[in-house]
Amino acid sequence: MTTQTTDIPPAEQGERRSWLREHSELGVCALLLVLGVLVLTDALTMDVDIAQRGPVGPKTVPVVVGAGLLVIAALLAVDVLRGGRGQAEGGEDIDLSEPADGRTVLLLAGVFLGSAVLIEPLGFPVAGALLFWGAAFALGSRRTDRDPLIAAGLSLVTYVVFNNLLGVPLPGGPLMGVL
Amino acid sequence: MDAFNSLLDGFGTALTPVNLLWAAIGVLLGTAIGVLPGIGPAMAVALLLPVTYGLDPIGAFIMFAGIYYGAMFGGSTTSILLNTPGESAAVVAAMEGNPMAKSGRGAQALAAAAVGHFAGGLIGTILLVALAPTVAELAVDIGAPDYFAIMVLAFIAVTSVLGSSRIRGLASLLIGLTLGLVGLDQMTGQQRLTFGSLQLADGIDVVIVAVGLFAIGEALWVAAHLRRRPPEPIPVGRPWLGRGDVNRTWKSWLRGPFIGFPFGAIPAGGAEIPTFLSYVTEKRLSKHKDEWGKGAIEGVAGPESAASASAAGTLVSMLTLGLPTTAVAAVMLAAFQQYGIQPGPLLFEREPDLVWGLIASLFVGMVLLLALNLPLAPVWAKLLRIPRPYLYAGIMFFAAVGAYAVGGEVIDLVILLIIGLIGFGMRRYGLPVLPAVIGVILGPNAEQQLRRALQISDGSVTGLFNTPFAVTVYAVIVLLLAWPLVRKAVTRRRVEA
Predict the structure, then answer these.
(1) What is the ipTM of this complex?
(2) Domain segments of chain A as ranges
(3) pTM attached to this predicted model
(4) Which of A100, B1, B63, B233 has the least C-beta neighbours within 10 A?
(5) Smallest CA–CA distance from B171 into chain A, residue
(6) Are B118 and B72 in contact, with CB atoms under 8 Å apart?
(7) Residue from A32, A35, A41, A92 to probe the interface with B (highest B Cβ count within 10 Å)
(8) How do residues B308-334 score in pLDDT, each as one tens digit?
């Protein structure tokens, strides 16, 4: 059987790939389906005999939402297979004529996650500056003379405004301990 | 005259130096953020939620109101000078405003927009003062079934009036409702969708959902499709209007609010429909039909006035019924919930200082806007040149500050990123963001009202329909759902005839 799958001519393989790319919205259906199953399982495995007050318990709404997710997943799949397409959102700085730049998105998400982890050991001013610089770098800014300065200034001012003026505590980290 | 006296008291609150300061900060921040490309009023209010954690509610809402009006104003500046409107409500401003700017009449276009916003905001807010107490009084007796009906109306309206695809709107709503389910059940303490995690037992904070969907989602989405070369703004001087322009536009300024206000008050997508209707009306009534499409000043004045008035209309439903009709109103509702205040008919009785202070500050904010924006327009226009990497890095930065400030937990930042990625996917596949936000904010509330209503009726479903108010609301819902079918039938008949 395995030989058969590898024997598919390259043209057909390309066709299949482009079919998948055109119908990538089916992934949304799959996610909705998974979410629906998750919500339904959680609702149905709930143990509510003791806690229930009134005729409608904590199960009812999750069951409705979960079932709704399954129905919508199916309806969306039908719509996509019939040729329906969700319209990608436009905007002032958005150029939809070029293909999506997945690398930038991954880099941005990575920078964000990295700074999140560093907030507690390094404190907000340092982690925040790294977040801004890293994000600007990911978005294509290469001014090594200017970017770090702006990042540090913004992060420090924000820290002081929030922590000292607005009374919203942010961790200062070792740097603020020294200053 | 009761409303008038309350309003005077409100001015007493709004005109204290501290609250004046918040109004001024709100208006300035709002305008700056509105001018910045890529940031709409909803994202602005969401990003600024954490700033208010240390404030009293009155100051916070005065600032939010300033941001709301300021951001709408700033948005039209971007449309006129860049011709790439970021939000649907500003599309109309670009249609005549940008040709005006190209032919060297940018200053007049900005002035027509500024005065239009002032006139629309003023008339809209006067209508708000006149109508809101009456609506609140009428609604004061409404109970659990009525509240549930209103929320169902909000859900249906937001999924079927807005956007091009009902299925995608519903999918977005269900994602929001699911996020709203996470945590302890409010009535029984039962854990739902927490998977045993302590952090999730507190539920996902609406601030994190709003910031994640509006800010992180948008920044990631723009990052994937960033224009190599940002559009160049058209240089512009200080806005002014000649006598001929005023003669042409004053009627448009006055007409706009009466189109904008009612549409703002109903869940019909905020300013998008009324600005377009105003544009069409002005075009039909214009004596200079040959100029349309090439820069007719009435086409800027009317729609901008309608846009501001619709913001006032939005506040009527939000304050008196707790019904958010736009994304900004939804985020403001979340802010109310942060303070443990439930907007609704009782708000006018329980928090008169807050409500009337807020309404009075709208008048203050409008005067400030007009006074600031006419002279500052060239400065605002400079903001359009901000390097895009800094702009979107800044959005990520402030989103992180906001989410971390909620509870000082790193896990919140991880949840923020995950919700941001959901927001990215939603933008990619045309799922509107607003239904999800409405679902998160209203979902838990709707569930509670539903269960309360059924508790009173002892489980009988008729308990949901036993008031005239609820029946009326459900009739409206049926109309909304049936409308596309009716329209299809009508157009078919017309084609046949």
Answers:
(1) 0.87
(2) 11-81, 102-178
(3) 0.85
(4) B1
(5) A72
(6) no
(7) A92
(8) 898 888 888 888 888 888 888 888 888
